[in-house]
């Protein structure tokens, strides 16, 4: 690998999930070691990386229209005698591969999520030939990606993401992840602990462990034993400086009581679980190939509540999946009423080319999807607000994250991930303090330091 002599600037534009945010940070870190400084400003960037997401409809179309704008910028730079490189990374890169190079001549490099460790070498190539790297050597990726510098880690705040598991073997019929991120892989326990330790050494107080199926984690520990997520949570909680641990995204099929024990026994594990159910209809769950029923899901919720009665839940919902009748949709609303979610992400079903659901009969008209989505979102918003309002009068532990909007104000998060604003000294950032909640306003709570 060659190191560029003059400092260049890279803009990583990231879309989609938290795993993409984590990957964007890792790409910035690896390029930092190659003389590329991170920038937020396209006008002074020498390199742009579009870290794409394939989960939303027309994701690829949006990438191509963004690439059209970048092509013009690249032409302007060329006329001015400047170099400008365009890289497409992430799940659209993985799914579309060579097609991107064919459709958009301005793109220099297409790189899939499992190949980011190759970025410096590919960018440093003298040859002008354009390249696609969408292999799946996931083990290499984590071993080869560097840690952020201390300054960079500090600048990212008191809370950090750590990917512990990647890929998926579940093959839900609507989802592209098994094709874009490959099969399930868990990082070894020691590697995860080392990364968390490095983060706490520079003042990180909260980690969110990430994985497409994070509760399917089964990384090997030092003695060759395959550790569960519950066991990993215990090990992470023993690292000095860690105040809070979260994890996402879990799959209902992988719920086991050890995870509930972790919530019961480890104070650092926050009482919040994102457990997507997608639908409350067993027929639709079957068509989605979720491999669990609505009752299995409710049993998991009940088990978690038995061991940690203050735990709250969030979920993902897809409305208008092929074949969804009014009765199926009503079953989803009934499930939502029964669980009482603290928050949820909800989407209209949209066709993902290459997935089994794309070929299913009985696709639902857009206007029906729109109506169902509105009804579902109104119900979720009501539950969310009820949950938030129920905090007024309580004293909560708040992790202070940053300055608030007004002078003298600080902002942080409650154990249930609610945003809280209160007056406190600015050197409280990184501390967990007690705040008495006095008011509930749109999307946040207001309180007074105890
Ligand atoms: S569990 Fe299903 S929805 Fe989640 S990543 Fe795997 S295939 Fe996609």
Would you give an account of this structure?
With 450 residues, the chain is of the alpha/beta class. The chain has 4 domains: 8-138, Rossmann fold (3-Layer(aba) Sandwich); 147-270, Transcription Regulator spoIIAA (2-Layer Sandwich); 307-390, 2-Layer Sandwich (Transcription Regulator spoIIAA); 395-449, OB fold (Dihydrolipoamide Acetyltransferase, E2P) (Beta Barrel), CATH 2.40.50. It is built from 15 helices and 19 strands. The protein has helices at residues 18-32, 59-79, 90-96, 98-103, 119-124, 138-144, 150-155, 177-180, 189-201, 229-237, 257-265, 282-287, 294-307, 326-339, 366-389, and strands spanning 8-14, 36-38, 47-52, 85-89, 109-111, 131-133, 159-163, 165-166, 185-186, 206-210, 244-248, 272-274, 312-319, 343-348, 395-403, 409-413, 419-423, 432-441, 444-449. The strands form 5 sheets. Strands 2-1-3-4-5-6 form a 6-stranded parallel sheet, with helices on both faces. A 5-stranded mixed barrel has the order 15-16-17-19-18. It has a 3-stranded parallel sheet with strand order 7-10-11, with helices on both faces. β1, α1 and β2 form a beta-alpha-beta unit. α10 packs parallel to α11 (257-265) and α14 (326-339) runs parallel beside α15 (366-389). The longest helix has 24 residues, at 366-389. It is globular. Mean pLDDT is 91; it is low at 1-5. The chain binds iron/sulfur cluster.
């Amino acid at each position: 690998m060659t190191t560029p002599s003059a400092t260049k600037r890279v803009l990583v534009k990231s879309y989609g999930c938290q795993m993409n945010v984590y990957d964007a940070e890792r790409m910035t870190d690896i390029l930092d070691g190659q003389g590329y400084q991170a920038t937020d400003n396209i006008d002074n960037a020498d390199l742009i990386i579009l870290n794409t997401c394939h989960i939303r409809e027309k994701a690829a179309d949006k990438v191509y229209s963004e690439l059209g704008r970048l092509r013009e910028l690249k032409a302007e730079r060329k006329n001015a005698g400047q170099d400008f490189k365009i890289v497409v990374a992430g799940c659209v890169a993985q799914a579309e591969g060579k097609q991107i190079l064919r459709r958009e001549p301005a793109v220099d490099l297409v790189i899939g999520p499992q190949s980011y460790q190759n970025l410096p070498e590919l960018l440093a190539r003298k040859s002008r030939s354009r390249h696609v790297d969408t292999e799946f050597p996931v083990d290499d990726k984590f071993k080869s990606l560097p840690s952020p510098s201390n300054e960079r880690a500090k600048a990212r705040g008191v809370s950090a993401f750590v990917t512990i598991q990647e890929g998926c073997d579940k093959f839900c019929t609507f989802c592209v992840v098994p094709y874009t991120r490959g099969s399930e892989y868990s990082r070894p326990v020691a590697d995860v602990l080392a990364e968390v330790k490095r983060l706490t050494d520079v003042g990180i107080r909260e980690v969110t462990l990430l994985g497409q199926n994070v509760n399917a984690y089964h990384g090997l520990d030092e003695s060759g034993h395959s550790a569960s997520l519950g066991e990993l949570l215990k090990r992470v909680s023993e690292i000095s400086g860690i105040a809070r641990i979260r994890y996402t995204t879990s799959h209902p099929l992988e719920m086991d009581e050890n995870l509930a024990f972790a919530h019961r026994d480890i104070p650092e594990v926050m009482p919040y679980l994102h457990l997507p159910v997608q639908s409350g209809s067993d027929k639709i769950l079957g068509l989605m190939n979720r491999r669990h029923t609505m009752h299995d899901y409710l049993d998991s919720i009940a088990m978690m509540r038995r061991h940690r009665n203050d735990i709250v839940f969030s979920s993902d919902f897809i409305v208008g999946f092929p074949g969804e009748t009014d009765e199926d949709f009503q079953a989803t609303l009934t499930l939502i009423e029964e669980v009482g979610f603290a928050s949820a992400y909800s989407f209209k079903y949209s066709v993902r080319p290459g997935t089994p659901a794309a070929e299913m009969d009985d696709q639902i008209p857009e206007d029906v999807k729109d109506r169902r989505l509105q009804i579902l979102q109104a119900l979720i918003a009501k539950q969310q607000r009820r949950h938030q309002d129920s905090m007024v009068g309580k004293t909560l532990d708040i992790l202070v994250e940053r300055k608030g909007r007004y002078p003298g104000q600080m902002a942080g998060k409650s154990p249930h991930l609610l945003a809280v604003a209160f007056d406190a000294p600015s050197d409280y950032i990184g501390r967990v303090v007690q705040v008495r909640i006095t008011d509930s306003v749109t999307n946040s709570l207001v309180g007074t330091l105890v």
